[in-house]
Amino acid sequence: MNEFSATLLTFALGAYVAGMVGALLFQRAERLANVIGFGLATAGGVCGVISFASALATGAATVSRSFELFPSLIPYVRFSIHADALGCFFGLIISLLAVALSIYSLGYARGYYGHKNVGALAALFNALLLATTLVFLADHALFFLIAWEIMALSAYCLVSFEHEHEETRDAGVLYFVMSHIGTACLILGFLLLFQASGSYGFDSFHALGDNMPAGQRNAVFLLFLFGFGVKAGMVPLHIWLPAAHPVAPSNVSALMSGVLIKTGIYGMTRVFFDFMGAPPNWWGVTVLTIGTISAVLGVLFALMEHDLKRLLAYHSIENIGIILMGLGAALMFLHSGHPALASLALIAGLYHTINHAVFKALLFLGAGAILHATHTRNMEEMGGLIKRMPKTAVCFLIGAVAISALPPLNGFVSEWLTYQSLLQGFGTTTSLIRLMFPLSGAMLALTGALAAACFVKAFGITFLAQPRSEHARQAHEAPFTMLLGQGILTAACVFLGLFPALFLKLFDPLTQQLTGQQLSQQLSTANGLVLSGVAAHGGTVSTLGLTLMLLCLLPVPLVLCLLFARRSKTRIAPTWDCGQRGLTPQMEYTATGFSKPIRMIFKTLFRPHREVQREYDFSPYFATTIRFESHVEEVFQTRIYRPLKWLVLRASRRLRALQAGSLQAYLIYIFVTLLLLLLFAL
Amino acid sequence: MNLSPLALLLQTLLLLLLAPLLSGVIKNWKAKLQNRRGPPPWQVYFDIAKFLRKDMVISEHASWVFSFAPYVVFLTALLTGLMVPMINTPAPLSLFGGVLAVVGLLALGRFFLALGGLDPASAFGGMGSSREMTIAAIAEPALMLAIFTVAITAGSTDLSRIAESTQGATWKLLNPAHVLAFAALFIVLLAETGRIPVDNPATHLELTMIHEAMLLEYSGRYLAFMEWGASIKQLVLMTLLINVFFPIGLAGPGASAAAFGISLLAYLAKLLALSAAVVVVETTNAKMRLFRAPDLLSAAFVLATLALLSTFLFH
Known about the structure:
- The structure holds two protein chains of two kinds.
- Chain A contains 30 helices and eight strands.
- Chain A is mainly alpha-helical.
- Among the domains of chain A are: 315-557, no CATH class; 590-631, no CATH class; 640-681, no CATH class.
- In chain A, the strands form three sheets. In chain A, strands 3-4-5 form a three-stranded antiparallel β-sheet.
- In chain A, α3 runs parallel beside α14 (339-374).
- Chain A starts with a helix and ends with a helix.
- The relative contact order of chain A is 0.08.
- Chain B has eleven helices and one strand; from the N terminus they run ααβααααααααα.
- Chain B has helices spanning 5-33, 43-53, 64-81, 99-118, 123-154, 159-166, 176-192, 211-215, 220-245, 257-284, 293-313; one strand at 56-59.
- Chains A and B meet through α17, α18, β5, α24 and α25 of A and α2, β1, α3, α4 and α5 of B.
- β6 of chain A pairs parallel with β1 of chain B, so a sheet runs across the interface.
């Protein structure tokens, strides 16, 4: 990172701080607070993108740079920043999203004028951006934890922004509790690392794992897996995610799903690849298994949702699973001594990280625009929006194609890389464990196909056919700033999909740092137009080539039309209605109906429950009114968390006996504790 | 590896012309086996020409997605065909993508097909889309796992490489991995091309149709492209099956004209044999209830897993 990038980075951080302060100062004048807050966040994002991208593009040797942010007044804490390749990569992701989301927010926040404090929203948004950027750059464990905590708290405030709804308050508290359980694990993990190295600086943790006893090392692994896993939303620690993401304002949902959960991925990559040295095999196996389970369960639960934002939130769990598959495979390859393959798997995981950030933020922005226009998140009340919001529809469709891992967009590219690393992983060992690679590949295929089904539902029910409610009929296109925000992310999806080889160059310093390999040369052939697997003749793909070929083949149907259909006419007519008079929106297929086959096939998981009440005059087949209710069991809540909650409550009821209010008893407790500590010290 | 325009052109023509004929042959043989006379094999050409000439009726609720879908379905099917070796081991576009791209492009076509089904606000279309996406989703792991088995053996996801590596001395008729993977892929083929026992291509009965339900609102040239696209997809999948598992007679790079002639004949013979198998399965089985189809496809998944295990055991 040269002088130029470092200056821009300080500008970016300064802009977030200024945005935070400015928005708070002018909170009485909400228009001004909106422009200042989100305007400065946009500026900060632009500075960040240029800074991080140029740092990564300069190559491996010069990328890292450390400096003290401000002198510390507290012992043990150093507020120092170390912008290395890994930090810069994640910094790039958040800066990119900061630009698009802040521009979008300029329009979105107008919806809050008059009844909510827009200044507070903008200030918290800036605080979240600042804290998250610092999480990626912090070079000191305590500074990291401080930034982590500011991030969690500002996210909590943003989730609870619309706190007049009970659902929002509950989700906020759940997020708060889960987040802090995770943080507790992180603190324990860092304390163990401190014990081994004698310092809190990240530089002293580098490859520390090799010098630690095995038991301690495994404890560190498990603590960080749990701690960061809560933040990432991996199964079974995910329950806060589908509750918290939907109730937040949509720009915040996009930021949370796009970047915030990626801080967990950042932390895992940092600790497992940078700190822990050569990993034992079971680490990789664990991460790969958790990733596979998260991917499949995430998409299955997403399919059951008809709340558009909850559906998207569940897809975040799925995509975190796909990212973890890459990371887990990379750990396994590091164990078996294949650094090139480990780099490939790591690139696959991290490429999916940025891809998911881009398309998930895009989809949440689309959902926000729909919420803005129809005032509902329930897909069953939408429909026909493609005619009322044509531009949002195009952006959402592109996002949907990308997240379903369909060529030629970016989701396909990163999943292709994941498939390649999994397939080549088969040859790295001779033990039975290698069957895991193709089997998780098959589960990835299942995930991709289910995601496609889910987004056919999400796009089809929301945007196509007839409007299902008065709200949907009255919908209007989003204002320009909201469209611009979506447009930037749509362009990023297309760019990341069509020109992956250009982007893969940015991974060179990163893989050099973590695995000692640079792969961008081997990953691209034909002047960077074709992506190729690392092994010789392992397989190639060119999304750009496929797109161009599709365009080259387009004359075939067009010429056929010219030859045959020159005189044919097109008539607009009602849809076939089986001879009844007129189709009504009630006759359309619903989101619940669309996912019914999946619900039935996986009924052991969902335990679907439905209740039908009919009122009829003379025969049950001619009902006058029908009441239908259907829901699926939230397995993790009912089977794991609710019993756990009762256990905790019962235990605390028992413990209440200790707090009897008698001073003598408390003195005895203190005395006994003191004695025990003295004995322990001896 | 470079792109040869001639090979590209020839394979495009072969795909366009052979696909309807293959559908016609299957229909004809099926009729024969059921003691009917049946339409002549070339009837499908006339159907397509007729559809192309016909006027179109488009639903008042439909949006641009409805008109966009036929082109996507048709073009993606055609493009996947160019990445599969037909009569020559190096497929014309194998540089642009291997088997993962083939599966991805077919999924892209299906995505838009299903959206086209939902667009006209008809309950039939929605039902078809829902079922199509479900069947595809549960067929996908079996498809991928069976492909992985051969891809791992060949060390590549490039279909030309896979065909080359199965060719020659190492090819055995009863290689257990290949037999099991072939069986798995054959079941997936039936599901993906909408054949009995999963779907019935001849039905227009409201409650049983899947593929036809999505096409219900299509007419004229859009219907022509949809039908043609479906038959190209069927040809591509069948080609994939025969040339990956039975690459006998497949001409290598730079073969003579005579070798290409033999290769073409061998290809047609294999294609007809596989069609005969499909016809026999279609006539001797009844269509399953929708919720029985997962059993069949999980059987395919188990077969593919066994194929994978057997590469492990017999190495």
